[in-house]
Specification:
The chain has helices at residues 2-16, 18-23, 25-57, 59-73, 83-106, 113-146, 163-172, 174-205, 207-212, 214-227, 234-258, 265-273, 279-288, 293-303, 309-317, 323-332, 337-351, 353-368, 374-382, 390-419, 425-435, 439-453, 465-533, 538-576, 582-598, 604-617, 622-661, 666-742. The protein is mainly α and 743 residues long. Helix 15 (309-317) runs antiparallel to helix 16 (323-332), helix 15 packs across helix 17 (337-351) and helix 23 runs antiparallel to helix 28 (666-742).
Length: 743
């Protein structure tokens, strides 16, 4: 150990010398240690070189030593489980190498450095062949796991791989095939590691083996294993078992002891919906999960359950929500803008279908009783929700039922009068003709009552001239009543058709005007925003979006509050002056006009709304005032909702521009803004053309129905005129006959 003490003393002297003074004592020791380590490394290289030179100098001994190492370690290669690899490595590679070494040992005179060169060249060729064969074989066997072809290989490498049979076997018995594949995979991994260990051992224990590069061959085999995934893919093979045998139990143990689980976002939203936690609690948990404040607001807004279309339909049918509210919820349900209006129309139609059915049922009942004509029944069938307001339809239903009940009472009274002899048959017929418009029902009722009045007396077909005169006069009166009634119906039905046509035009014109107005607003907003924020990067764009969102929310809140204040003020004003006289209403108007001049800007819209309401109520009756106040309130709702919609459209357009152009240069952003504005206008015009086409189709259909209805009434009136003319002629003949008899 004296040499160790000498080295220690030398290191101490170095550390305390100038090196220690320059770098410090501790760093001096480190520098001295590095110097000694480098010296040992250089010494080991010289030792290895000397060993190699000695091996080359005594090549016979080196070859004998290499052959002995191969012979001693080749027994381990018998453990290779893959027959092809075992035959190639043991039989082909090592057999040829051993034979070559034995042949050189027999030719003693050639042993020298030249013999070493020959062995090196031949070993290099064998090593290259070994690499190619092992790589090809491993790749060929990987086809067994990939179940697809990875190239063309010698037949003995893939003789048992038939893909259709593999697919069929995996479909029929996947568990057994997985176990078989696992065994083959582990066998392949075992064989490669065994081959690499053999070459590494021979290279480490034999000087000539080290010089020839046996350890490089070991690394080459290891590289094949790792490059094709035989190493790291082991976790796929053994991982499932280890997950259940080791990891699952440990995870269960640690979860029970440490309790690391947190609420998920889905759990938080579900707790919020079920009122397990409040909004503030949900915000705290989401903040702990790492969500930003702006994202938390959107998550909470999305957490609530939205009503379905059926539930919205029920709410609308019961008049709990208005058209504007229904359209707003349709937007939240994600209905596409291009079909949203049609879906809204469909929902409104379904919501009012029960009212429609009730009205049609009342008309059908009156038709069967003879109170309504066939054309009136057809008009009821052709009635759609787009042609009439829901409240008007309910009023029509009540009026139709009332019409039938009143006619029932009138008919019942006439029947009782006819049965007790208060009125004769002709009067009975004439009075019924004022009520029953269907001749077949009228004649059937008269014949039935005559039979009931005198069931055993047959009605004689013959009649005197006097009775015939009275019958013709009654017939003429009935025909004239029917003519006047049909003329009135014609006028009313044509007026209804004109109203439908006007309503359809107005509805489509309003939709077209709304589309163009919103498109113009979006285009103007994009161009205006482009002048402000073109060229913004992503961070500045997001900051601008937050600023615009805050401004818009403030504007919307102000308008909603103003609308609520106006509605509350109008309802209070109406309750106060519901039954007031015109003079009292006028006095109240003058009072508010004086207050308007002194009012603040926040109070002026409310006072103006009161003045408008009172001006409209002044000349109306008490019954009409209640309907008018609802109309005024709905008008204000529509006006404010339109303003809110415009504000939201401006915000949406600006946000769209900012997000699409964030990061672009100013010129590119301005060009994109012009392109977006043109695209919005073009899309709006396409929708306008589509609506105009639908409007023209509906108007054409209504015009055709109007012409058909007008033609039917004209034909019916013409028939009545003919019958009236014939009845008058027959009546004149009877009168002349009576005059001749009286002479």
């Amino acid at each position: 150990m004296s040499w160790m003490r000498r080295i220690k003393g030398a290191i101490g002297r170095i550390a305390s010398s100038r090196l220690g003074r320059v770098f410090g004592k501790y760093l001096g020791y480190q520098m001295a240690g590095l110097a000694v380590g480098t010296g040992f490394e250089i010494a080991s290289l010289f030792t290895m070189e000397a060993t190699l030179q000695q091996a080359l100098a005594d090549m016979g001994k080196a070859l004998e030593d290499l052959g002995k190492q191969i012979q001693d370690n080749s027994k381990v290669l018998q453990g290779i489980r893959t027959a092809y690899l075992r035959n190639f490595v043991v039989g082909s590679f090592l057999g040829r190498l051993s034979n070559r070494i034995a042949g050189m040992l027999r030719a003693r005179r050639w042993l020298g450095w030249f013999t070493g060169y020959i062995v090196f060249v031949e070993f290099s060729m064998l090593a290259t062949e070994l690499y190619q064969v092992i790589y090809q074989y491993v790749l060929a066997r990987m086809q067994r796991f990939a179940m697809i072809s990875l190239g063309n290989f010698p037949g003995e490498m893939e003789h048992d791989i038939q893909y259709e049979r593999l697919y069929q076997a995996y479909r029929e018995n996947p568990e057994e095939m997985a176990k078989q594949a696992l065994k083959e995979f582990l066998d392949l991994q075992h064989d490669l590691n065994l081959i690499a260990s053999f070459f590494d051992t021979v290279g480490a224990n034999s000087a000539l083996g080290h010089w020839l590069g046996f350890r490089s061959v070991a690394r080459m085999v290891t590289n094949i294993s790792w490059s094709l995934g035989i190493g790291w893919l082991s976790w796929i093979a053994v991982g499932p078992g280890m997950r259940y045998s080791i990891a699952r139990g440990l995870e269960k143990f640690y979860r029970e002891k440490i309790r690391p689980e947190e609420f998920t976002r889905e759990m938080v939203t579900r707790f919020l919906r079920r009122n397990i936690i409040d909004v503030e609690g949900a915000k705290e948990i989401l903040a702990e999960l790492g969500w930003g404040d702006d994202k938390i607001e959107k998550i909470i807004e999305d957490a609530w359950d939205y009503p379905s279309r059926t539930e919205l339909q029920d709410l609308y049918e019961d008049k709990i929500i208005t058209d504007e509210k229904l359209n707003e919820w349709f937007m939240k349900l994600g209905i596409h803008p291009r079909i949203r209006d049609d879906m809204l129309t469909l929902t409104i139609k379904r919501a009012t279908s029960s009212v429609m059915k009730s009205y049609v049922s009342a008309v059908e009942s009156n038709y069967l009783k003879g109170y309504r004509s066939l054309e009136e029944l057809k008009n009821a069938y052709n009635l759609t929700i787009s042609n009439v307001n829901v409240d008007d339809l309910r009023a029509l239903t009540i009026a139709e039922k009332d019409f039938g009940e009143r006619n029932d009472e009138r008919v019942k009274t006439l029947i009782e009068a006819f049965r007790d002899g208060t009125i004769d048959e002709e009067t009975f017929r004439a009075r019924l003709a004022e009520i029953i418009v269907r001749p077949e029902v009228l004649e059937n009722l008269v014949a039935l009552e005559k039979q009931r009045k005198q069931p055993k007396i047959r009605v004689e077909p013959t009649e005197t001239l006097e009775r015939r005169l009275r019958r013709l006069e009654n017939r003429l009166e009935i025909l004239q009543i029917q003519y006047r009634y049909q003329s009135k119906l014609r006028e009313q039905d044509l007026a209804v058709m004109d109203a439908r046509i006007t309503r359809t035009k107005t509805r489509y014109d309003a939709m077209i005007e709304r589309i163009r107005r919103l498109a113009e607003i979006r285009a103007e907003s994009i161009l205006a925003e482009a002048q402000i924020s073109a060229g913004y990067d992503v961070e500045r764009a997001e900051a601008r979006i937050r600023e615009l969102t805050a401004i818009t929310e403030a504007q919307v809140s102000r308008l909603q509050a103003e609308l609520e204040a106006i509605i509350k003020a109008l309802e209070e004003e109406f309750e106060t002056f519901r039954t007031a006289t015109t003079y009292e209403v006028q006095a109240r108007i003058r009072y508010w006009q004086v207050k308007l001049e002194e009012a603040s800007p926040d109070q002026k819209p409310i006072i103006e709304a009161k003045i408008i309401l009172l001006q409209e109520l002044a000349a109306l009756s008490v019954a009409e005032r209640e309907q008018r106040v609802r109309t005024v309130i709905e008008r204000y709702k529509a006006r404010y909702n339109a303003r809110i919609e415009e504000i939201k459209e401006r915000l949406e357009a600006r946000i769209t521009f900012l997000r699409e152009t964030a990061g672009l240069s100013r010129d590119e952003a301005l060009a994109r803004a012009r392109e977006m504005a043109e695209r919005i206008k073009a899309e709006a015009e396409e929708r306008v053309k589509e609506l105009e086409k639908r409007r023209d189709v509906e108007l054409k259909e209504l015009e055709e129905r109007k012409k058909k209805l007008e033609l039917q009434y004209d034909r019916r009136l013409e028939e009545l005129e003919t019958r009236i003319r014939q009845t008058r002629e027959e009546l004149e003949i009877v009168r002349e006959a009576l005059q001749k008899i009286s002479r």
